[in-house]
Amino acid sequence: MTRYLKFVFVLLISFVFLFGNSNGNSKYSLVLKGEFTQGSILFAEVNGVSQEAKGTVTFNNNEYDFENDKNTLFTSIPVGLPTKPGDYKVDVNIEENGNKYSFSRTISIKSKSYGTQQLWMSEDQLAKYDNPQADRDNDAILEALKSDVEDIEWESQFIKPVQGRTSTGYGLRRYYNDDPEPEFHKGIDIASWNGYNVVAPQNAIVVMAKENLILHGTVIVLDHGRGVGSLYLHLGSISVKEGQYVKQGQVIGTIGSSGASTGPHLHWATYSHGVPVNPWQLFAVPSSWIK
Fold first, then answer.
1. What is the rounded CA–CA span in Å between residue 33 and residue 40?
2. What is the pLDDT of residue 26?
3. CA of 127: how far to CAs of 66, 116, 124, 215, 250, in Å?
4. Are 275 and 80 in contact (CB under 8 A)?
5. Reduced to 3 states, what is the DSSP secondary structure of residue 55?
6. Which architecture, in CATH terms, is 3-109?
7. Which of 27, 129, 202, 283 gets the highest tally of CB atoms within 10 A of its CB?
8. What is the pLDDT of residue 21?
9. Low-confidence ranges of the chain (pLDDT < 70)
10. Pick the CATH number of 116-289 from 3.40.50.1980, 3.40.640.10, 2.70.70.10, 2.160.10.10
């Protein structure tokens, strides 16, 4: 069994399912699926609602809107890397036909270590991090990742956007040169070759397609709906336009080494409501989320 298949198998059997409500005052139940650890994405759904129903779910003091699709409310919930291990209440509020329903569940989040990495960069590359334009670029990317496009159906499980070796994993505490303060690596780096095609891992709307950003070079941001977005950095070229709908497997750009990059690769990151989450977990999306 390959390492990738072993990972998916372990991930699938580690999924936890929570049903029902804790106070009995709602006719609905919340289903949560995912790995309840730091850096994870949780898949939340409420079944059996009408097409007019809407609602929100609150976790760790953050509220997220549900998307209504075929009598089911869907949304993703991010468990950010800084989330402290422990018990958390998940509150659900639903409005339907003039009535309001609310209920809650308590979940337990466990710690998870993703390792460390030492990275050496030239002074010219490091200077880019102090450029004020870099902060403005980051703000624009984060704003794009908070896009909330609805009615995007998922064809199948996510696929890898480019073939190649994973050179840097998600969640690593990365140390630059002699700086004693690490930064969390918010995605995965896939080593590849200049000019290789990068494809959309899932159906999406292109919400950003920019060139020549100080740190990140040529950049694409996709919105996959249900709170899920993805980010592609250091590209060599862009093949799509902002506002364009792309299908899973469609070419969106090519591998490059633009921005603060030490060689040709793709930095691929996935987000839930603007919070970076472990990309590998999208290779085991619950079947109810797929068309």
1. 11
2. 63
3. 42, 23, 5, 10, 35
4. yes
5. strand
6. Sandwich (2.60)
7. 202
8. 45
9. 1-26
10. 2.70.70.10
